[in-house]
Amino acid sequence: DSSELVDVNNYVEAKSIEPASDLHGIAEGKNLIVVKLESTQNFVINNEMNGEVITPFLNSLTEDEDTIYLDNFYHQTEQGKTSDSEFILDNSLYPLGRGAVFFTHSGNEYHTLTDSLNKEGYFTSAMHANNKSFWNRDIVYENFGYDRFYSLPDYTVGEGEAVNWGMKDIPFLQQSVEHMKEMEKPFYSKLITLTNHHPFYLDEEDKFIDEYDSNSGTLNRYFQTVRYTDEAIKEFFTSLKEAGIYEDSVIVMYGDHYGISENHNVAMSQYMDKEITPFESAQLQRVPFFVHVPGSGIGGETNHSLAGQVDLKPTIQNLLGVESDKSIQFGQDIFSEENDNFVILRDGRFITEDLVWAGETCWDKETGEATDTELCAPFIERANEELAYNDEIIYGDLLRFYDPENGRLLEEDVTIEE
Ligand code: GP9
Ligand code: MN
């Protein structure tokens, strides 16, 4: 019953902060386009591979005056991979430490980003050219409140337009713009790219740069598929402009999870030219994050704020000026001055302004060397507490006992007995 939610609610209220007022509502009434960059880690941004630029278009956005780019933004996914990153986006909760919450708790009550946009009069959709039941998406999206799921049957996969796991990103994003033209405005669309997925295969004509030369074919090919998706994003922006959608839209892009696992540490250490310690491994969990608001002048230089995927929901809601949602969430507006600058990864690792906890070791962020565990101790406790509260919510389906519009626990007598 709702008494189980009291401690959770107290914890969440204590960490709730005032969102950034200068960015509040800057994208109010605009379409929201969220592009999930499959397996894209931050180390490829503003970087080269054997003298070749890996992400020329995304790099240009890092200096664009209408774009905020974060280089200290972490994924918080576990075994549910892409679906975990979707769960976090919509709920500002962590996924589960084992299994995929999209499968194990698809029927819970959730108070989602999508729900809040529905209330604001948005037409909401998810777009992904794969079978609709993959990751249980068809069931979960309906529960999360998406008006429409554009899946494989909504796309025409022409000759040579599929590779690796399915439809290539360039035609996928192009056809998605065609669907957007038909949508009621304002709309929210979540687009999930696919080409940059393990094992990172490409057709010859889509290889815009060479392979890398390490002992890992996976890492060697990864640079090429990332480069391909960068091209797809560039063409997507052009298509949005041609369709007359661009000016009225805010575009948010973020990496869903790592593409290169620790099995490739030898190759990674060759590329990074340093040993991949647990500290470096944790830092490799950074994924790129972009907010692009045409004509806003919000950006221009890299923003080093410390943030994670749980922060997406409150941050997006503040940009769009959504007031109606007071749901239970662990994230904080990234751009608020009050932000805690504390990021917890799902496996218990964490990052503070000065420290990284990884491999049961406390690391000094500045030197990358192990330091006194005592320095990490208070944060270890807080990370464990936060993840435990999160799991109580999911395992107990506790959001049934919470009213997200008024931000309060439901009284005992108005809850429905099971
Ligand atoms: C499948 C795609 C990839 O539809 O989202 O999923 P992943 O393996 O990255 O979780
Ligand atoms: Mn993925």
From TrEMBL:
The keyword Manganese applies. GO terms for molecular function: metal ion binding. Mn(2+) binds at E38, T82, D256, H257. It is a multi-pass membrane protein. The keyword Aminoacyl-tRNA synthetase does not apply. Residues 30-322 form the Sulfatase N-terminal domain. One of its GO terms (cellular component) is plasma membrane. The active site is at T82. It is found in: Cell membrane. Keywords: Cell membrane, Manganese, Membrane, Metal-binding, Transmembrane, Transmembrane helix. Substrate binds at H197. Belongs to the LTA synthase family. This is Sulfatase N-terminal domain-containing protein. It comes from Jeotgalibacillus proteolyticus.
